[in-house]
Design goal:
It is built from three helices and 16 strands. It is α+β, with helices and mostly antiparallel strands.
Length: 258
């Protein structure tokens, strides 16, 4: 899907104002309402002033995460039958194929798109018990796990007259899907020789850019970092992070510095 570009602050106001008056009553179990993300923390699918509703063909409503704020499950909020096209900034959301297999995108106020059917996994709902399972993926926050039984699980109510106990979950997180952000090249140029008093500022700017790219979801493999000083402590732990690509270009920069 070509994800639409949005202005976070403005979209947040639009999201909350459009949902406050028309939110349907959530059918998420009040005692089983949390998913977990290592980076985003607990995600509450039935918060006090929001809530997610599961329909036979789609999900809608708002979940809440302390670290990323409100998470909107779709642009539709009128209940009934609906299928998201996930093709524009006004038509996106999480679909349900009727058998509990979810797909499509949710979005948080910090601009994070959350894919409910990534390349290596999928979020599902047992339409008999209401129990969620599987993993969603976001480039900004990583994997989101919906079933960590018996510690936590998201479960919808009222999907079946005779619910049965959910099956045990012995799965382990799959590897993250390949990054779709592309590649970036950072060059600490102008020479590291002692006479160049500006190099330390140039180098610090490249370090900051490296950290910023990592925060935006780039991996070390996505970033080509060229620096005549190959020892670099990007994360501040006092050890070389091995991020400088020691190829012919870096060796050329090092020769210019001598």
């Amino acid at each position: 899907m070509n994800k639409p570009t949005t202005h976070i602050a403005l979209s947040g106001v639009i999201m909350l104002s459009s949902f406050n008056a028309t939110l349907a009553a959530s059918n998420i179990d009040a005692s089983q309402k949390y998913a977990w993300s290592t980076n985003a923390g607990w995600i509450n699918f039935r918060p006090t002033h929001g809530g997610v509703t599961v329909y036979p063909d789609h999900l809608e409503g708002l979940a809440w995460a302390e670290n990323i704020g409100w998470v909107q499950l779709g642009t539709h909020n009128g209940g009934g039958g609906h299928t998201y096209a996930n093709t524009s900034r006004t038509d996106w959301g999480v679909n349900n194929d009727g058998a509990g297999n979810l797909s499509g995108y949710a979005r948080s106020l910090d601009g994070s798109w959350i894919n409910f059917k990534p390349a290596h996994n999928q979020v599902t709902i047992n339409m008999t018990t209401g129990g969620f399972d599987g993993y969603a993926w976001s480039e900004n926050v990583g994997w989101i796990h919906f079933n960590g039984s018996p510690t936590y699980q998201v479960r919808a109510e009222g999907l079946s007259v005779e619910p049965s106990p959910p099956p045990p979950d012995d799965s382990t997180p799959p590897p993250p899907p390949p990054s779709t952000l592309g590649s970036a090249i950072i060059i600490a140029a102008s020479g590291a020789h002692r006479g160049n008093t500006l190099f330390r500022y140039t180098e610090e700017m490249t370090r900051r850019m490296y950290r910023l790219l990592r925060q935006r979801g780039y991996t070390d493999d996505d970033i080509i970092y060229l620096n005549p000083r190959t020892w670099q402590d990007i994360n501040g732990d006092g050890a070389d992070d091995g991020v400088v690509d020691d190829d012919c270009a870096t060796r050329f920069l090092r020769n210019l510095s001598n």
